[in-house]
Design brief:
By secondary structure, this protein is an alpha/beta fold. Helix content is 40%, strand content 20%. The chain has 9 helices and 10 strands. The protein has helices at 10-21, 36-45, 54-60, 73-80, 82-85, 115-122, 137-140, 159-172, 187-204, and strands at residues 2-6, 25-30, 49-53, 63-66, 89-92, 97-98, 106-107, 127-131, 151-156, 177-180. The strands form 2 sheets. The chain has an 8-stranded mixed β-sheet, with helices on both faces. Strands 6-7 form a two-stranded antiparallel sheet. Helix 1 (10-21) links the parallel strand 1 and strand 2. It is globular, with a radius of gyration of 16 Å. It binds NADP nicotinamide-adenine-dinucleotide phosphate. NADP nicotinamide-adenine-dinucleotide phosphate binds next to helix 1 and helix 4.
Length: 215
């Protein structure tokens, strides 16, 4: 498949690299066509890797990942272009973190709304699936870095889109326990979980952490 990854940070590069390793063609998108970080990633990732603008990456991808800074995601997606997202699965990995009052950050949307839902309303023809935002980038594509079975959450309004991404999470990224939380309003819960994640990070002193839902 062809994947368009919006975002050149840790998350975009990590997910993009894994997708290339799985045999897919991946374009990493950013505000500029010649982003040097994307250039380094491309050189390391090999022939199936390319870089471009947000619009070029969104047009390229059959499936698109939003891996941009949460407070810039709407701008990045507008630059990507609604027509380039229409009908496509849009995997939203972003968190609505607000660092304006220092650490730990707060959330700039929550409780009765979420960033995932905000994106879905702004791009109604995209099929938004929220997932992976609850773990650090390296765990997203390699959950085996932690011993034992731990949990990934997925939610979204489009059942087929969710099934597509659940299969990628299970068979591609190696998540044995993927819990479908239902419609996209569940993004309120997985984004709010960041409050707990940030406290766990501070208390445990490691980014390599996740929850396992025992039932
Ligand atoms: N880091 C993690 O392990 C982790 C884990 C879970 C979830 N997340 C979430 O995943 C997302 C990506 O995180 P990250 O750490 O990889 O990188 P990040 O620093 O949060 O975001 C980097 C991307 O945001 C873009 N960006 C920044 N300001 C922008 C603006 N004004 N307009 C358009 N684009 C803008 C950058 O564009 P350029 O490429 O043009 O510079 C870059 O591609 C975030 O929402 C984060 O909360 C991160």
């Amino acid at each position: 498949l062809r994947y368009g990854i919006l975002g050149t940070g840790m998350v975009g590069r990590t997910i993009g690299g894994k997708l290339v390793a799985l045999g897919h063609d991946v374009m990493l998108g950013s505000r500029t066509a010649d982003n040097p970080t994307a250039g380094e990633w491309m050189a390391a990732a090999g022939d199936r890797a390319s870089r471009g603008t947000y619009a070029e990456a969104a047009a390229f991808g059959e499936i698109v990942f939003n891996c941009t800074k949460g407070d810039a995601s709407l701008d990045a997606l507008r630059a990507a272009g609604a027509d380039h997202l229409a009908g496509k699965v849009l995997v939203d990995v972003a968190n609505p973190l607000d660092f304006s009052r220092g650490m730990p950050p707060s959330l700039f949307v929550g409780n009765t709304d979420s960033l995932g839902e905000t994106i879905q309303r702004a791009f109604p023809r995209a099929r938004v699936v929220k997932t992976l935002n609850t773990v650090n980038a390296d765990l997203m594509v390699d959950p085996g870095r932690l011993a034992g079975t731990h949990t990934m959450f997925v939610c979204g309004d489009d059942a087929d889109a969710k099934a597509t991404i659940t299969a990628l999470l299970r068979d591609g990224f190696g998540w044995p326990d993927v819990i479908d939380l239902g419609d996209l309003a569940a993004a309120r819960a997985t984004e709010a979980y960041l409050h707990l994640w940030l406290r766990l990070w501070r208390s445990l002193g490691t980014l390599s952490l996740n929850v396992a839902v025992i039932r």
